[in-house]
Structure formats: C-alpha cells, structure tokens
Specification:
By secondary structure, the protein is mostly helical. It is 69% helix and 5% strand. The protein has 19 helices and five strands. It has helices at 2-13, 15-34, 44-52, 56-66, 72-75, 84-99, 101-107, 111-141, 153-180, 185-195, 198-212, 215-237, 275-298, 303-308, 314-335, 338-348, 359-392, 397-400, 405-428; strands at residues 239-246, 249-251, 254-256, 263-268, 350-351. The strands form two sheets. Strands 4-1-5 form a three-stranded antiparallel β-sheet. A two-stranded antiparallel ribbon has the order 2-3. A hairpin with a 2-residue loop joins strand 2 and strand 3. The radius of gyration is 24 Å and the shape is globular. The model is unreliable at 295-301 and 442-452 (pLDDT under 50).
Length: 452
C-alpha cells in the first residue's frame, strides 16, 4: 500500500503527466455525460419500461449493442451511436488499403498520407452515421414506442443530425485524448463505456446471489473472472521471439563482429488483437438487429431468426467461432507482411541465423506466423464464447458479458497500454516503476528492434 501511494505521488509530481491525466479525465467525463443526454422528443419512461419487459434474447442483443456506447444505445441519448461508426470506417479504410492502389500509396507516404486517410475516415464515419441513425430510430426506438406522437419530418431531420453530431463529437474527444491526454483516446472511450456497466452488473449479480442464498457461487464467479483476466493478459502480451544477427560493420579500420542474440524480432501470438471478434460480431449484429425488429413486430420467427438472434445459443456461437478463426488469419495477414519484414532486415544488414536473407527469410517468418496464429485464433474463439458459457452457468446477462468477448479484450488492452505510457513518463524521469520491481510487459526492451 505504501508503494502504491508513493507511485501516485510520483505521478502527481510530474507536471506534464498530471496535466494529461486531468485532461483525459475531463474529456472522459464529457463523454459519459453525453451518454445520458436523451434525444429531444423521446419518451424515456416508455423506452425504459419496454426495455425492462423484453425477452432474454432481446435483452442480450440490446446489452451487446449498448456495451460499446456506455449505455447510450439503450438510453436513446445524443451519443447512441457511440464510437462504433468510426471503428467501422477505420476497418473499411484498412480493407481498402489492401485492394485499392491509391489508398496503399497514401499508407506509404508517412505522416502526410496518414492525415489524408484520417480525413477520409472521418468523412466515411459521417456517411455511416447518416445511414445508421434512421435505422436506429426505426428499428429500436420506434419499436419500443418511445417516439413522439406524430413525429414531423423536421423532427426526423434534426434527430438524425444530432445523432451524427454526437458520434462525431465522441470521435473528436477520442482524438484529443490521444493527442493531448494519456492512452489511445478511441480505445479508452470504448473501455470506459464498457467499464461503466460493470458496477451495475456486479451489484445485480450480488443481489441475485443473496436472494438465492448462494454466496459460494458468487465467490467462484469472481475467482474465475480473475483467472480469465490473467490468461488474457498472458496471451495478449505473449510474443514469439525470433533471434536476429546483424552483419559485421566497420568502425574505423577494424571489423565489428555480429551480435548473436542481442536483437530479436517479436511476433505476437495475438497479432490481430480484438479485431477478429469485432469483425465477426459486427457481421452477426446486422441480422441480429433485423431479427430483433421482426420479432418485436411479428413475434416468433423461423429457425434462422432464432439461431442468429440468440447470442447465447449453440449454433450462434459455433458460427461465431468459425468466423473468428477465419478473420484472425485474415487480419493477421493485413497486420504482418513477411515480405516487407524480410526486405527491411536485408536492407539493415540483419538476418535470422541459419536462414538466407530474402525469399527464404520471408517464407520462414510466414511459417512462424502461421503456426502461432492458429493457437491465437483458438484463444480468441474461446474468449468469445465464454459469456455464453457463463450465462448457461447461471450468471446474469449483463455480468456474463465481462467474462470474455470483445469487452474483456478491450479492457485488458486499454489498461495495459495506459499503464505502459504512464510508466514511460515515470522511468524517463528516473522514478520508480509503476509496478514496483516489475515492469509492464509489452513496453519495448532495449534489445528489441523497432519498426516491426
């Protein structure tokens, strides 16, 4: 406890770090307030009662869709669309970078190209918001009966504009946090939206355990959650270190021997991060949303509707697992280019011991990536289906979401990234490490090559 208090004092004593943290907290607070500002004309009492009286399947879908907006989706707030349209636009731009030569050229132009791509991403975000806003009002708010009586065309137009503006304001907040605050702003806003639902979900689970007189089950749930978090940290930070040698160099009139193992190429076990789960759930969310509307208006539904509209069902999770494995290989291929890595090593005079530079090195790296991607994809798939297993074990829907899936991976990744940045500020000023005698793994060591 004493070391923890000392670390807090060190953080506060670094003026720049203190200012960045306070600015980040202020911007996050603005985002949270916006999640509770209800759209004009919406009857919130009707919306709340309709949501409380829905079926378990409907509640599960709504919890999933509302998770990334900090409750703004279910509240029908000005930030109901949240930050996800920007994430979707970013994904689309990444995919275009693989297929469109003009976008590839921008990606290779460095900072100037990145600024142009960011502008295109913002424009695409506005387009996506303009398409999602009326769908959200028709498929969710109107189905709940929370629209104003006889809404006019002006009301529809102003509400759509407000939803678009709210989402873009969230994007602006995220960019300001990244630039002037601490951590990755977009990821941090998503994580805050997820974490904001944790206290209520845990309190509901505690109340359920007290009513059933089963406190041992609650303790076991907490222990299992901690073990899952530890395993996620282990896999997220796990890397396959490929030893690298550097060619002999000439200093003055003498040759310098190659460095045997001082450098290494880190290949992450989970190079694709959370993106495969986001891809898979985003694709499955579209029919889920449509079938939610159809079920509300007609009731029942065919077998395809029942499969795709139940996020805790067997076949839904089987489809999810298959899609995650496929998307993990797909996104890893986007993130890691063995040919480019091999060319960069060859130009810098580096090589993998026992492997010839050039094509042979590219094939060697590609084989290693393929081998470590398979267990990484299985891990992501296992994490994605844990909430369904927790639901079957008797955990309530809202708390089961935190046992795995996108929410857990995002929370772990954002916390680790933020801790790394804070620790960097402390170590640069010759202060004690944030984690005591240890260090936040993932921060580049002195012997790790940059740029790969």
């Amino acid at each position: 406890m004493k070391r923890f208090i000392t670390n807090l004092k060190n953080i506060w004593n670094v003026v720049e770090l203190r200012q960045r943290i306070l600015l980040t907290l202020g911007l996050v607070l603005a985002y949270r307030i916006g999640s509770f500002v209800i759209l004009p004309g919406i009857n919130y009492s009707i919306l709340e009662s309709a949501s409380a009286g829905g079926s378990d399947t409907q509640k599960g879908i709504e919890n999933l869709l509302s998770l990334f907006s900090g409750g703004g989706f279910s509240n029908a707030s000005v930030m109901a669309l949240g930050i996800m349209p920007y994430i979707s636009a970013s994904i689309i731009m990444q995919l275009l970078g693989m297929a469109v030569p003009a976008v590839q050229k921008l990606q290779n132009e460095g900072e100037s190209g990145r600024k142009v791509i960011n502008n295109y991403t913002r424009i695409l975000t506005i387009v996506i918001c303009a398409l999602q806003a009326p769908s959200y009002l028709k498929m969710y708010v109107e189905q709940k009966g929370a629209l104003p009586d006889d809404p006019t065309t002006f009301w529809w137009a102003q509400t759509i504009i407000i939803l678009v503006a709210g989402s873009m304001f969230a994007v602006w907040l995220g960019e300001r946090i990244t630039e002037k605050g601490i951590g990755n702003g977009i990821s941090l806003l998503i994580a805050v939206g997820i974490l904001s639902r944790l206290p209520g979900a845990f309190i509901a689970e505690v109340g359920k355990s007290f009513e059933g007189g089963n406190l041992i089950k609650l303790v076991l749930e907490v222990v299992v959650l901690m073990l899952i978090i530890l395993s996620v940290i282990l896999i997220v930070q796990g890397v396959r270190r490929v030893p690298l040698n550097t060619a002999k160099g000439v200093v003055g009139n003498r040759a310098v021997e190659a460095q045997q193992t001082r450098n290494y190429l880190p290949l992450k076990v989970n190079a694709s991060g959370v993106m495969p789960i986001i891809f898979a759930q985003a694709i499955l969310t579209i029919p889920m949303t449509i079938f939610l509307s159809a079920t509300d208006s007609k009731g029942g539904g065919n077998i395809v509707q029942r499969i795709l509209s139940d996020p805790y069902g067997l076949w839904y999770n089987v489809i999810l697992v298959v899609m995650i494995v496929v998307f993990t290989y797909f996104y890893t291929a986007i993130m890691i280019n063995p040919r480019k890595i091999a060319d960069d090593l060859k130009r810098s005079g580096g090589f993998v011991p026992g492997v010839r530079p050039g094509d042979e090195t590219a094939h060697h790296i590609d084989d290693l990536v393929t081998r470590i991607t398979f267990p990484g994809s299985l891990f992501l798939a296992a994490i994605a289906v844990i909430p369904a297993v927790a639901k079957i074990a008797g955990v309530n829907d809202s708390f089961a979401m935190f046992f795995g899936g996108t929410s857990l991976l995002i929370m772990v990744g954002v916390v680790l990234d933020t801790l790394q940045q804070i620790e960097t500020y402390l170590l640069n000023r010759h202060m004690d490490s944030l984690m005591g005698d240890t260090k936040v793994r993932g921060r580049r060591g002195t012997n790790e090559l940059s740029g790969f």
